[in-house]
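Re: that backbone. Tokens:
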């Protein structure tokens, strides 16, 4: 039988004769004749082009939007279509890496309406907008990888060829009531603009397609707040960039987490399979853990031997959506090799403010962990603490559940701000918190969270060696 599937029927599925001896379709293709068809799958709306826009040759690289208005231009009468403009000839020292793979993963998610556990997770009532209601009532917008198809199967494909209603500058996530993904990342763009940094924008798709060539022209790459979904090519490029002397500022939490990929013939579509580990909304069935796109095993990068701690020094530890907390400087911050990071910061508290629940440490958080690959020479600049019991240990960290794995009891539940150097004068600075980026705009960007980031950015784009590298005798490096 030779056929063409519409709206991406799911392959790499077990057939009636699957024995269970092999868990991958590459090993026993004759046992993987299963195909899943979903009546609510939307991969390509196939809309006809009604309007085109020619980007001017002299338009600076950045994030833009086309504003559409109907009637009085309020509520559903106003729409923004965002797009990124990339430089044809990179010249800036800084690249903002737009985490578009993660935007795809959360595209049009409906957890508020469909997941009974959503409200207890966030610890507050949802703030539902007219946009959320329209997304839920209409199947034409498609689903996110956090949703289920009508038959109960998890959604493993997400695509750009449809309206993505929650990828809008004014959108607020209804579960938490704060900005999330794209609109949250605009706080970092605002910070770059406010301080007049010369920067350009690249996307996850650019990184996946070109590998390290997309990053190589830049001295420093700064990420968005929630780069959770990474392909192997993206992860390889990130590690190679740092090893070759690049400087990376990781501005988020829960990053470098899920393994995904993009079909070569449909690069606007992404595949993600959630396995039996990780904070997830659904579980792939036994024998169906491998990506149809590449044949590679899906799931967490941690379980594929590449935990985020190896790449950026920190990894996912907890999430909570009803509060955020400040950081407190740690003893390492006075170490002479890194004391320049907190120069101009008065006192020990950093980020006791923010647009995301009033603090820079929170929403989703990462911590330093030597066992999982944090470089042993990494320094902990600051750590958050005092989180509520709504912050619980992530499930992949739990071997046996017992009481006390929450914010008021477990010392591991914190955001660690970490810095380490790499070969060829490369370096990584990680905030370990999604909320950090949303603390930057407070007081018109004049605050200590902004000051720390400015210190790091100025050092990372400056010619020559990094500050603090002239110190060598460990016993002389402390205050």
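Recovered sequence:
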């Amino acid at each position: 039988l030779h056929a063409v599937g519409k709206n991406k029927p799911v392959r790499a599925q077990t057939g009636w004769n699957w024995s269970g001896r092999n868990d991958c379709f590459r090993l026993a293709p004759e046992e993987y004749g299963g195909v899943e068809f979903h009546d609510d799958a939307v991969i390509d709306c196939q809309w006809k082009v009604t309007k085109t826009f020619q980007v001017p040759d002299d338009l600076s690289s950045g994030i833009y939007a086309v504003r559409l208005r109907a009637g009085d231009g309020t509520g559903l009468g106003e729409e923004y279509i965002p797009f990124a403009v990339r430089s044809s000839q990179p010249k800036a020292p800084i690249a903002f890496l737009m985490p578009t793979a993660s935007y795809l993963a959360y595209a049009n998610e409906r957890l508020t309406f469909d997941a009974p556990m959503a409200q207890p997770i966030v610890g507050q009532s949802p703030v539902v907008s007219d946009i959320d209601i329209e997304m839920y009532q209409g199947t034409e917008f498609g689903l996110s990888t956090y949703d289920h198809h009508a038959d109960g199967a998890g959604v493993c494909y997400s695509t750009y060829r449809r309206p993505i209603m929650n990828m809008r500058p004014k959108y607020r996530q209804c579960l938490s009531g704060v900005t999330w993904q794209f609109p949250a990342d605009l706080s970092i763009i605002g910070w770059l603009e406010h301080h007049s940094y010369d920067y350009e924008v690249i996307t996850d798709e650019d990184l996946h397609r070109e590998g390290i060539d997309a990053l190589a022209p830049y001295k420093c790459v700064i990420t968005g707040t929630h780069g959770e979904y990474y392909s192997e090519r993206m992860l390889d490029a990130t590690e190679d960039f740092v090893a070759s002397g690049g400087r990376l500022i990781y501005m988020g939490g829960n990053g470098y987490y899920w393994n995904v990929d993009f079909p070569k013939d449909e690069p606007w579509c992404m595949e993600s399979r959630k396995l039996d580990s990780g904070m997830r909304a659904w579980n792939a069935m036994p024998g169906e853990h491998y990506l149809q796109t590449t044949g590679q095993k899906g799931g967490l990068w941690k379980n594929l031997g590449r935990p985020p701690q190896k790449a950026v020094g920190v990894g996912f530890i907890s999430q909570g959506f009803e509060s955020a907390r400040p950081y407190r400087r740690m003893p390492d911050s006075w170490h002479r090799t890194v004391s320049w990071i907190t120069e101009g910061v008065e006192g020990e508290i950093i980020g006791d403010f923010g647009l995301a629940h009033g603090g820079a440490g929170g929403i989703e958080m990462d911590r330093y962990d030597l066992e999982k690959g944090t470089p042993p020479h990494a320094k902990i600049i600051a750590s958050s603490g005092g989180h509520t019991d709504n912050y619980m240990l992530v499930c992949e960290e739990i071997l046996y559940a017992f009481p006390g794995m929450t914010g008021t009891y477990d010392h591991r539940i914190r955001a660690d701000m970490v810095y380490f150097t790499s070969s060829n004068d490369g370096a990584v600075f990680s905030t370990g918190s999604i909320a950090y980026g949303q603390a930057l705009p407070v007081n018109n960007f004049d605050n200590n969270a902004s000051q720390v980031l400015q210190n790091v950015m100025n050092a990372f784009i400056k010619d020559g060696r990094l500050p603090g590298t002239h110190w060598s005798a460990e016993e002389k490096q402390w205050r």
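The domain at 94-104+180-257+300-476 is CATH 3.40.50.880 (Rossmann fold). The two ends are 74 Å apart (CA to CA).
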